Description:
The protein has helices at residues 5-15, 17-26, 33-36, 54-61, 68-71, 82-85, 165-168, 240-245, 289-296, 304-307; strands at 122-127, 133-137, 144-145, 150-152, 157-159, 169-170, 175-180, 190-193, 206-211, 226-232, 263-266, 276-280. By secondary structure, the protein is α+β, with helices and mostly antiparallel strands. The chain folds into 2 domains: 5-105, no CATH class; 118-321, Lamin Tail domain (Immunoglobulin-like, Sandwich), CATH 2.60.40. The chain has a 6-stranded mixed sheet with strand order 8-7-2-1-11-12, with no helix packed on it. A 4-stranded antiparallel sheet has the order 5-4-9-10. Helix 1 packs across helix 2 (17-26). The longest helix has 11 residues, at 5-15. It is elongated.
Amino acid sequence: MRLSVPVFTFLATTFGVSDALAVSSYVSDLPHGSVNRCAPCHTNPNPGGSARTAFGNAYASNSRNWGPSLASLDSDGDGITNGVELQDPAGAWTPGQPSPGNPAMVSSPGHSFSTPGERALVLSEVRIDQPQVIEILNPTATAIDAGGMYLYTGDAGFQIPSGQPANTAIPPGGTLRVLLNSSSPNVPGRISEPASSGLGTFGSADFVSLHWINDNSNTFNVYWTLTDYVQWGAAGQARESTAASAGQWTAGQFVPAPVAGRDIEFDGIGGGLADWLTDAPATLGALNAECLLQGLLGQRALDAAQVYAPDSNGDGVLNIADPVRRIADAAAAP
């Protein structure tokens, strides 16, 4: 990445000359540098001279050159090599080439809680009524561990426990439910957020954002750490502009607040307002079937990928040939 003089001047003024140089040079010398920014090399992902991570030290010791030797290391000790985390297992990439692999599968080799695929996870359902629940969906064909990611509600950030893959790993097409203000034990597919964590209580107009890393100020206003967002009840909720900068939401849009006993649900494809449904039957832990059913009945727009998807309700008939099928509400308790 080659910065223009005004951008470099801004960075130098804001973060100092050495950090501006790091942003303009070091970041572009690593695969997917624009995705991870300063996070692999620094404990604080924001520029500003924070301490180096183990990966940052190894990178500096290697004369800040990416290659096979650095790719083969597991600097953060999470059992995944630096090369796999940066989608370049052999360390064959060189600056100036297109970054290899899938950006959604990139993770930080400087943080053990950051694992491949976390950026692909999405918010899929929010229960406003008690007990309040946030559901996270894995829309990929590969299991992804959500441990170490953060949820933010404006009151505080909550880090999904890391080191509990049996509970936090989400299978392909599966979900992880996070129970707010709960003392229930963590089990596979369900994590409790203790009241002491401070996520607070949802209001009729509120929001949730999902982040792959904390910006170390607990404000969660750095756009490239935000991976998903939804707001309901009214526009202008906190982090709306951050989500817009991240390309995860359109400023001024919001999902209508649900009536009592109903949730807001994501239809599984896309990510804009049109992909969220309000007043949906609770389907926590199961397919958000109402979204698809309404689309097939012509009551809401559907993405082509949903219409031509395989048999969503398991009745042996493809979606495209099953426009009036019955989809049972999976009223799964949290």
